[in-house]
Amino acid sequence: MPELPEVETVMRGMEHAIKGRAIINVDQRRKNLRIPFPANFPVVLEGQKVQQLSRRAKYILVQLDSDKTVIMHLGMSGRVLLVGPDQKYEIQKHDHLILSFDDDSKMIFNDARRFGMVMLANTNEIESHKAFANLGPEPLGNHFSADVLFAALKNKKTNIKNALMDQRIVAGLGNIYVCESLFYAGIHPERICATITKAESEKLVQAIRDVLNKAIAAGGSTLKDYRHADGELGYFQHQFAVYDRAGETCSKCPGAINKCCIEKITQSGRSTYFCPQAQK
DNA sequence: CTCCTGTCCTGCCGGC
DNA sequence: TGCCGGCAGGACAGGA
Length: 280
Hints:
- The chain is an alpha+beta fold.
- It has helices spanning about 5-20, 40-45, 145-155, 160-165, 175-185, 200-215, 255-260; strands at about 25-30, 50-55, 60-65, 70-75, 80-85, 95-100, 105-110, 115-120, 265, 270-275.
- It binds a DNA duplex through helix 5.
């Protein structure tokens, strides 16, 4: 999926295209994605103005003029396509939701694997919604720090890779950015959380922030068929340091000297990429 | 509680 | 060429 930087990029694209627009039509093309669409979803949306866009973890929040907020999750394969007023659009396979706006622009939610979700909440109760109730801090926000991370890790018996994937520890990281952050922090993905020192927590927090900020600055990573929310293929071909690079020489180890190779292992059923020389 | 495994779904890629 | 197994960015239920 789209991890935090990609979701942030999609949200910004949506903000640019649909903020302030009134929804005049909702074409809900099936009754569920991963979970059912909210009851009477089209009726709830039609006629409402989009007041505010925001992101929490990997969720996009679309606040409407009424007291409702639409909560969207892109799952593994969810994409948002924004079609301008003067552009023609033909429905494609896996287009599940099409919103039409008062300026004749459209927003299409396409999700091949249908692991995505669309939910509805009362705006004033958003914090207590089950999607958000147990989330950890935003990694780019003020509530995430070495102290906070260290405290969250110190009694855990699982490995650091799994812990960083856990949205209750820190919200918004996924498989790619966890691998990348651990690489930059020089921490082995199989390290038990309780052995991570305060100094390593500092490094990790810094690495997480740097990796995410760079990816956001690059407009979200372009991975395979990931597209920008504006419908254009991403311009930046973001180069990962270790993710999907098994067998290659890592950037920290001049290969001719160290013969360093990036390895791929499986942790909790997910691939982990790391450099055994550069990560201890 | 914590931790780990399996599962939802389709598409794609590599091997035979 | 075609078929099949394995794998893919996430989240959650359920069992140990």
